[in-house]
Amino acid sequence: MKIVTIIGARPQFIKSAAVSQAIIDFNTENLGETVEEIIVHTGQHYDSNMSDVFFDQMNIPKPKYHLDINGLSHGAMTGQMLEEIEKVLQTETPDWVLIYGDTNSTLAGALAASKLHIKVAHVEAGLRSFNMNMPEEVNRILTDRVSTILFCPTDSAIENLEKEGYKNLDITIVKNGDVMLDASMLFSAFAKAPSEKLPNSFLLATIHRAENTDDPNRLKGIFKALNTISEEKPIVLPLHPRTKKYIEKYNIQLSPNLFCIDPVGYLEMLFLLQNCDMVLTDSGGLQKEAFFFEKFCLTLRDETEWVELIENGFNVLVGADYNTIVDAYNEKSRSTPNFSMDLYGNGAASRIIIENLLKFTI
Ligand code: UD1
Ligand code: UDP
Q: Which CDD domains is this protein grouped with (predicted)?
């Protein structure tokens, strides 16, 4: 079985690392079938601390194709990726195209493959924020619809698809759990401290969502709240390049207790997750990782795709309003939820993907 994996943004490197490892493990077991994986890096993320570091730390096989497409408007980026991925797929003629999540790289891969009648497997399918202003929501909906098999991490993802009528479509739906849990289980023993000098006791924050960075009121509200909270407990914030750009543009002042550092590798991130007291983020992936590492999460958004975290009291939506964020921090810094709940599988999500792709390869 031949798979072309299309990745390009930071969270996709992390997710695909777990699946690439499962492919290597499967091939080592010599079960009579061999899985060949060819990796295409679209180039969407390109700084070494947004890309290379994950390939190095997580043993991701070297991409055979690097398309170097980045820094463009959504249409131009997706369009150029579509054109270049099509050429790769015509050369490689794989059984499957494997795509992850909801970025422009995901949608370009799904469109290129489906138009060539190549089967598409979408990992992290069925998630919805119900906010069509998010570029990710558009990418998810369109990607799911042209896929052949949808790997859903949660029950709510499956329910979303059912409500959209997927039962009436010739699309296979599999609940496989979360490949990010697999990744955290594979690598957490190798966690290492970032090189910067950091406080021993801290909160961990990340911000990068377009709806926060591109709106000066939202970004100012969030940073005003982080400045206030950091007076009580220092905050470590690995800064996404997009956010760095907007902090400078809006001339936002940062408290000295807000330790803004460059984006870190996955192993450093695991260290920060293991050692922080709480997570404040607008990241999709980090909301789940907070749960994996038993940390309460304040989500700096108005909605989330990971609704089970909210429903079970592990996460609260605080948006971008100063008072709401500070009040939630003051309330939740004293809470100690019991995190022993199976929401995202048991670390075998990647293996289930391989087994199903083999099963549905004709
Ligand atoms: C993208 C995804 C988002 C995902 C995020 C993960 C889309 C629509 N968005 O958002 O869903 O959560 O990745 O991090 O696909 N930049 C650099 N260096 C890099 C990468 C980006 O400087 O290595 C800067 C560039 O100025 C670029 C901007 O960040 O224009 C935004 O990058 P882009 O890939 O367009 O979107 P993200 O905000 O990273
Ligand atoms: N991450 C990382 N270094 C950082 C920030 C995040 O390794 O400096 C990891 C994080 O632990 C998670 C993933 O990147 O595994 C989340 O990606 P991101 O927040 O960029 O995207 P999203 O999940 O929101 O799509």
A: GTB_UDP-GlcNAc_2-Epimerase
Kindly state if the Cβ of 208 falls inside 6 Å of ligand 1.
Answer: yes
Could you give the CA distance from residue 85 to residue 87 in angstroms, rounded to a whole number?
5
Residue 13 · residue 60 · CB < 8 Å: yes
pLDDT mean over 157-173? 97
In angstroms, the CA 45 to CA 52 distance is 10
3-state secondary structure 246-268: HHHHCCCCCCCCEEEECCCCHHH
Q: What is the tens place of the pLDDT at every residue in 305-319?
A: 999 999 999 999 999
Distance from residue 45's CA to the centre of ligand 1 (Å)? 6
Quickly list DSSP for 31-99.
Answer: -S---EEEEEE--SS-SGGGTHHHHHHTTPPPPSEE----SS-HHHHHHHHHHHHHHHHHHH--SEEEE
- Spatial neighbors of 285 by CB under 8 A, at least 6 apart, are 11, 14, 180
Predicted confidence (pLDDT) at residue 151 exceeds the cutoff of 80: yes
Atom of ligand 1 nearest to the CA of 9: 13
Query: What is the fold, at CATH topology level, of the domain defined by 2-178+345-359?
Result: Rossmann fold (3.40.50)
Model-wide pTM > 0.85:
yes
Ligand 2 centroid vs 168 CA: distance in angstroms?
Answer: 35
Q: Are 140 and 160 in contact (CB under 8 A)?
A: no
Q: For residue 142, what are the contacts with CB-CB under 8 A and spacing of at least 6?
A: 107, 110, 111
Which helix (DSSP H) or strand (DSSP E) does residue 182 occupy? helix 179-187
Q: What is d(CA 60, CA 116) in angstroms, rounded to the nearest whole number?
A: 27
Helix or strand holding residue 217 (H, E):
helix 216-232
Please say if the pLDDT value at position 207 is more than 90: yes
Relative to the CA of 9, which ligand 2 atom is closest?
20
Collapsed DSSP state (helix, strand, coil) of residue 200:
coil
Looking at the domain 190-332, which fold is it? Answer: Rossmann fold (3.40.50)
| Cα 273 to middle of ligand 2, angstroms | 11
Give the pLDDT confidence of 181-201 residue by residue, as tens digits: 999 999 999 999 999 999 999
Q: Where do you find CATH 3.40.50.2000 in the chain?
A: 2-178+345-359, 190-332
208: annotated active-site residue: yes
